[in-house]
Amino acid sequence: MSIRGLKKKQPKTFKVKIITVDAEMEFSCEMKWKGKDLFDLVCRALGLRETWFFGLQYTIKGMCTWLKMDKKVLDQEIPKEDPVSFHFLAKFYPEKVEEELLQEITQHLFFLQVKKQILDEEIYCSPEATVLLASYAVQAKYGDYDPNFHEPGFLAHDELLPKRVLRQYQLTAEMWEEKITAWYAEHRGIARDEAEMNYLKIAQDLEMYGVNYFPIAQIKNHTDLLLGVDAKGIHIYSINNRFSPNKSFEWSAIRNISYSEKELTIKPLDKKAEVFKFFSSQLKVNKLIFQLCIGNHDLFMRRRKVDSIEIQQMKAQAREEKARKKMENQRLAREKQLREEAERAKEELERRLFQLEDEARQANEALLRSQEAAELLAEKAQIAEEEAKLLAQNAAEAEQERQRLEITALKTKEEKRLMEQKMREAELIAVKLVKESDRRAKEAEHLKQDLHEAREAERKAKQKLLDITRLNYPHMAKYPQYSPTETRDANFDKGSIKLDLKDIDLKRLSFEIEKERLDYLEKSRKFEDRLKELKSEIHALKLEEKQSGLYS
């Protein structure tokens, strides 16, 4: 067979674009395919087995219509475009999401669609409930809340609340994020599928959840009404109230539904009850209402029958998958808890190590300061000793000057006057020298006491440093071999011997200083006594001069 013959036998196709809530896909659809063939192809691509909830929707002349499964795709009134666009959406809603949604992909698609309907305000939700639903949506997207990772502003690009709620309350984006995060932090440990299921369980209790609304008019009194079709039955609403129906027909209470052109009739199971007749603006609307009624009624009856083998298998697989995920989540939670405990223990050890290092550093600094203080005090003591020697030398010079003045005082009257003046100055200087000597002696005594206290502080700092070293390195005591620590200890012992020798020298010097100070004080007292004697002698000389003047 030639290649040209093979090409002729290939079926003709046209392009189709399938739009889900969060993705887009393109397929090649054969010309002869029915709607079910294209629908099954999309379900296989998504890995979806619970196909009875979904359908392919398209828009023609401003009206949303569902693709019929039993008719060819091209025979239906689809848009004339390339590629032809269809929206893969949930057509029918479960009564109880937790019991009927078995596959995770089914649950995820419902979650995305219901979330979009709430944000687009197709389903009314109170502000408090929207914040709670937003927190579950954040948990499903970001996982557990971590304040170190989820910093303020991490929800800035996420659409989580309806615009009606944002307009109703004058709150900033930061305030809304704070409210959502407060709930989000409470959902710690909830997996993504569990968070999505919690979202749907809250949403299914909303009045407008899963209801398809159509404008109608009652034939009896030509009143404009709204007809709603959902999983539980048919509801009649007033035109301005979509929350509370004026009248409801449950699927179990409906005997027959029929339509002819624009007129649609609902016959209750109770033959005595009034037949409800209404008409819509278009025949297509009646067909769409009738199609939704048949599908919801079939599912309503199916839920109340024994599950088929396929459903039983799917439920068993779902239970096994949930049990497996639960065990996996528990294992991950335990591992996470152990990891957090290990991190906390590590942080505590690091904090303790840092504290010990800080204490060791402070002890070293205290030791250095005490050593510097000891050196400074030793230097001051040496300076005080030199000053005391200098003062003693100055006192000796003053004594010599006084003796010289005493000798020269007998020469002339002028010389006597000068001698008396110098004697008074020498007396003042001697008194000052005595006082200064006493002050220097006391200062030397204080310096010796400060030196003793500084060396005591140095000894205590060294002892504290040794204690901290033994606490940080307890294993060093097990190995008596040569180490840098022993070298430092040896050096420390040598230093202690040197310090002891210095202490002995210092005591000897202090004793000598004290002895010289006492000698100096004794000499000063003798010097003062001698000055007094000189004064009395000078006074006696003056008296003699006056008497000799009188005699002359």
From TrEMBL:
Gene Ontology MF term list: actin binding
> SUPFAM superfamilies, per this entry?
Moesin tail domain, PH domain-like, Second domain of FERM, Ubiquitin-like
Source taxon at top rank? Eukaryota
Q: Name one Pfam family in it.
A: FERM_N
Give yes or no: UniProt keyword Ubl conjugation.
Answer: yes
Keyword Cell membrane attached: yes
Q: Where in the cell is it found?
A: Cell membrane; Cell projection; Cytoplasm; Nucleus
Domain FERM, chain residue ranges per copy = 14-304
Positions in coiled-coil regions: 311-464, 517-544
Keywords attached to this Swiss-Prot or TrEMBL record, sorted alphabetically, are: Cell membrane, Cell projection, Coiled coil, Cytoplasm, Membrane, Nucleus, Phosphoprotein, Ubl conjugation
Gene Ontology cellular component list: cell projection; cytoplasm; nucleus; plasma membrane
- Protein name, please? Merlin
Q: List the source organism.
A: Pitta sordida (Hooded pitta)
